[in-house]
Structures are given as structure tokens and as C-alpha cells.
């Protein structure tokens, strides 16, 4: 499977009939060995972080099609310092087609070269596409102490913004994220990048706020089950521990559910039911291969309830609820059913 940028990475492409030409793109750039392929492999192909040690250097652009609430393609470019050579039309076309450019900086290495490379890339990218979001991943922060991480972030932010100001570039949409593949930081950062690409984000957040208010829910996330990117959350404050518990709960639920999966492809009636639930996209993935959406509930040590319910197209609603909500679970599920219908309608508007 290929597109004109090079081989399509097949593992995450749940919609092979889609060409990546017509879907929004997120570019990934950065110097060699900064960790671009590792991020893609860990996030979209479930590679264990330690196995990234054996990844070979990327020599040509590769694309991973991400199919969730919206479909988009992550285009990873090989590490290079001369990326913005004048007349690089292919790159300019990519800048034009992309909603975001993730630039990965290896924080464990000397980053001066990265910063000058980033500066020339930003200058060219915003000239071609002023709306492109520049997302800087200050990566591999697992090797830095807490203080050092913040120092590195402050230093990099200062240098990048100063240089842009010197060039008169005042309103570049620029964000900085501390990331590592060895914890949840890279998922959170990628989630923030993806959320900015979803035109219906405000509506999704409003819907989640309404569900939380009327159901005794403390915090709710709408997750893409496979990548664990959260496409939206309600407006209550979020902490990393809550996010981690929710993603672990997705893993446990999917693993437990897979233990008892029936092979529906063998039975025409169940296959038809899969189709009705929109689960037929990837027959090899047990998560999306059943007539009933996955769901599960558990109680935490602190008395809070974790509740997971699969919504549309590989998305799951994961909520933290107070235990007082449990007697009213029928009402909660009634509200969640409304949320599911609203999601379905929103999604139909996007396709
Ligand atoms: N400590 C640490 N190492 C990482 C992290 N992410 C990636 N690495 C390591 O960094 C090295 C380079 O990673 P790659 O993903 O191949 O880097 P790349 O940017 O794709 O490199 P090119 O393909 O040459 O452009 C590998 O040994 C990874 O294990 C991280 O978050 N923390």
C-alpha cells in the first residue's frame, strides 16, 4: 500500500479504501535519531517503547493513516538539515495540506542545531500556510530531572520565540510539549495536537460537559481506543494520574474482552450485526469485531467508579464517577445513549 510520499504504514490504516490525499495531514519533522519513528510506532502500532532501540533510520517519507472521529494522516519525514531548500515543491505541498507540524527535539542531546533547523522550517511553513499549528515536542525528557525538564522547556521556548520576533513573525501558532515514549506524556501531547484538528471540538466538549453535569460524572474522556489519543474531554481540570488510570482501564477492558471474543466472521448473522455497529472496518482487530460494543465498570480504592462504554467508530467514553451515581446508573446510561446519538450525528456531518 503506497501513496506518493512513500509506503503507507499498514498497521494503523483501518480505512484502506481511503487515499491519504484527501484527508488532513499532520507532519512530523526533526533531526536524525530525535525519536520521530519511535513516537509513531509506540502510538499507532503498539510497539513496546524498549523495542524502539532497534528501529532503523527512516530514509523516505512514510504515512500512517489515523482513522478516528476524524480521519487524518501522520506524515513522517526523514531527519535532515536541508529540509527547506528553496524549490522543494513536495515539502511546500505538504505544508499547504497539513493542519499541524510536529517538530521533535531530542532534549538529551545538544539542541542548538535543532533550533536553527526548526527556525528555518517554521519560517518556510508559515509563509506557505500561515494557519499551520507548529507543535514542538521536547522529547526524551525521561532522561532529565524534573527541574531540568522545565529549564529545557523555558530555554527552548525563549530561543524559538525570540528568533521569530527578530524576523517579525509575531502570531505563529506555536505550542511546546514535554514528551517521552516511556510514559503517558507523548499520548497527552499528541491528543492536544489532534484536538486542534477537530472542527467540532467545542461541540464535543459541550456535550461532555452536559453529560457530566447531569450524571454525577467527575471527569469524562472520549478516547480513540486503539491509539489512546483522547479526542475530547469535559472542562473540569485534568491531571496526569486520572488520564493514566483511564488509559490503563482501556487496556484491561480490551484484553479481558478479547479473551471471550467470538469469531463473528464465521456467522452471517453476527457479521451483519458488526456491520450495523460500524465494526467491520478491521476484521483482524478483536476490539472492533463484536456485535456488542465493549463496556466495563470498576471501583477504585478511593471509592470513585471508573466506567467505560464504547461509542461510535472505535471511540470509547471513559468516565470517573462518584459512588453516589451508581444507584442512578440507569439514568447515567440513558444520558450516555443520548451522547452516543449526538456523536453519530456529528460524525455524519463530517463525512
Ligand atoms: N530515552 C528515550 N529514548 C527515546 C525516546 N524516543 C525515542 N528514543 C530512542 O531514540 C532513538 C532514535 O529513535 P528513532 O525513532 O529511530 O528516531 P528518528 O527521529 O525516527 O530517526 P531517523 O529515522 O534517523 O530520522 C532510538 O534508540 C529510540 O529508542 C524517548 O522518549 N526517550
From TrEMBL:
The UniProt record lists the keyword GTP-binding: yes
Residue ranges of coiled coil: none
Record region (Disordered): 1-21
Chain intervals with Basic and acidic residues compositional bias: 1-16
InterPro entries, sorted: Gtr1_RagA, P-loop_NTPase, RagC/D
UniProt subcellular location: Endomembrane system
Keyword Heme annotated: no
Keyword annotations: GTP-binding, Hydrolase, Membrane, Nucleotide-binding
Lineage top rank: taxon: Eukaryota
Catalytic reaction list: GTP + H2O = GDP + phosphate + H(+)
Free-text function comment from the UniProt entry: GTPase involved in activation of the TORC1 signaling pathway, which promotes growth and represses autophagy in nutrient-rich conditions.
Subunit structure as annotated in this protein's UniProt entry: Component of the GSE complex.
Family the UniProt entry places it in: Belongs to the GTR/RAG GTP-binding protein family.
Identification of the protein by name: GTP-binding protein
Amino acid at each position: 500500500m503506497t501513496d506518493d510520499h512513500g509506503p503507507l504504514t499498514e498497521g494503523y490504516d483501518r480505512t484502506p479504501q481511503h487515499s491519504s490525499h484527501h484527508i488532513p495531514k499532520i507532519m512530523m519533522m526533526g533531526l536524525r535519531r530525535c525519536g520521530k519513528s519511535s513516537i509513531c510506532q509506540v502510538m499507532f502500532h503498539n510497539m513496546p517503547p524498549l523495542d524502539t532501540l532497534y528501529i532503523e533510520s527512516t530514509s523516505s517519507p512514510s504515512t500512517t493513516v489515523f482513522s478516528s472521529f476524524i480521519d487524518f494522516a501522520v506524515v513522517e519525514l526523514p531527519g535532515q538539515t536541508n529540509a527547506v531548500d528553496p524549490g522543494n515543491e513536495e515539502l511546500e505541498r505538504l505544508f499547504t495540506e497539513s493542519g499541524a507540524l510536529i517538530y521533535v527535539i531530542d532534549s538529551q542531546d545538544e539542541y542548538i542545531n535543532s533550533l536553527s533547523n526548526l527556525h528555518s522550517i517554521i519560517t518556510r511553513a508559515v509563509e506557505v500556510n500561515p494557519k499551520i499549528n507548529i507543535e514542538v515536542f521536547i522529547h526524551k525528557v525521561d532522561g532529565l530531572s524534573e527541574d531540568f525538564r522545565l529549564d529545557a522547556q523555558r530555554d527552548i521556548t525563549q530561543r524559538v520565540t525570540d528568533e521569530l520576533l527578530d524576523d517579525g513573525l509575531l502570531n505563529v501558532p506555536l505550542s511546546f510539549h514535554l514528551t517521552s515514549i516511556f510514559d503517558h506524556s507523548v499520548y497527552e501531547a499528541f491528543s492536544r495536537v489532534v484536538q486542534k484538528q477537530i472542527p467540532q471540538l467545542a461541540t464535543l466538549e459541550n456535550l461532555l460537559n452536559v453529560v457530566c453535569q447531569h450524571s454525577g460524572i467527575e471527569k469524562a474522556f472520549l478516547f480513540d481506543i486503539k491509539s489512546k489519543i483522547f479526542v475530547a474531554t469535559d472542562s473540569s481540570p485534568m491531571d496526569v494520574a486520572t488520564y493514566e488510570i483511564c488509559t490503563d482501564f482501556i487496556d484491561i477492558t480490551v484484553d479481558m474482552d478479547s479473551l471471550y471474543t467470538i469469531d463473528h466472521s464465521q456467522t452471517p448473522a453476527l457479521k451483519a450485526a458488526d456491520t450495523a455497529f460500524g465494526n467491520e472496518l478491521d476484521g483482524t482487530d478483536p476490539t472492533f469485531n463484536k456485535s456488542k460494543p465493549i463496556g466495563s465498570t470498576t471501583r477504585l480504592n478511593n471509592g470513585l467508579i471508573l466506567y467505560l462504554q464504547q461509542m461510535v467508530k472505535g471511540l470509547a467514553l471513559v468516565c470517573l464517577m462518584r459512588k453516589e451515581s451508581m444507584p442512578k446508573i440507569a439514568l447515567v446510561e440513558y444520558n450516555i445513549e443520548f451522547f452516543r446519538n449526538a456523536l453519530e450525528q456529528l460524525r455524519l456531518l463530517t463525512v
